[in-house]
Design a protein that fits this description.
- The mean pLDDT is 96.
- This protein is mainly alpha-helical and 125 residues long.
- It is 56% helix and 11% strand.
- The relative contact order is 0.21.
- The protein is built from 6 helices and 5 strands.
Length: 125
């Protein structure tokens, strides 16, 4: 599964459902976009190290941007920015899930529900 950034935020806030979802998954991955968002959310160097250690200790694979991911994300933006308010970061995360044919775990299903080619696993915190 590919995890959206919000799942990490919920886990950090002590949400047991988010923690169980992460812990119960053996094939954990994130988009490079998610990695950058998670690291960017660090408030100081201590939290930065904790966030990096979290990703390492749970063996998250970071999936790099590819030309196909960029192309698919651009198509999502063209199709859904005006009608559904799709933002570029969400388009990149969804395109990564689609290109790798893996489910996307998120608590923000509304950001992705209009995408027919991405399987969404909804975290209900």
């Amino acid at each position: 599964m590919i995890f959206d950034t919000d799942v990490f935020i919920w886990a950090q806030r002590g949400n047991l459902k988010a923690a169980a979802l992460i812990d119960g998954c053996m094939d954990r991955a994130i988009s490079l976009q998610t990695y950058m968002e998670f690291i960017e959310a660090s408030k100081d160097k201590r939290q930065l190290r904790l966030n990096q250690d979290f990703l390492r200790s749970f063996a998250f694979q970071t999936l790099a941007f590819t030309e196909n991911i960029g192309h698919r994300a651009a198509i999502y933006i063209e199709q859904f920015a005006l009608s559904h308010g799709m933002r570029s970061a969400d388009a990149i995360i969804a395109a990564t899930a689609s290109e790798h044919q893996r489910p996307l775990v998120t608590a923000n299903a509304k950001h992705y529900r209009h995408l027919s080619d991405v399987e969404i696993v909804v975290l209900k915190p």
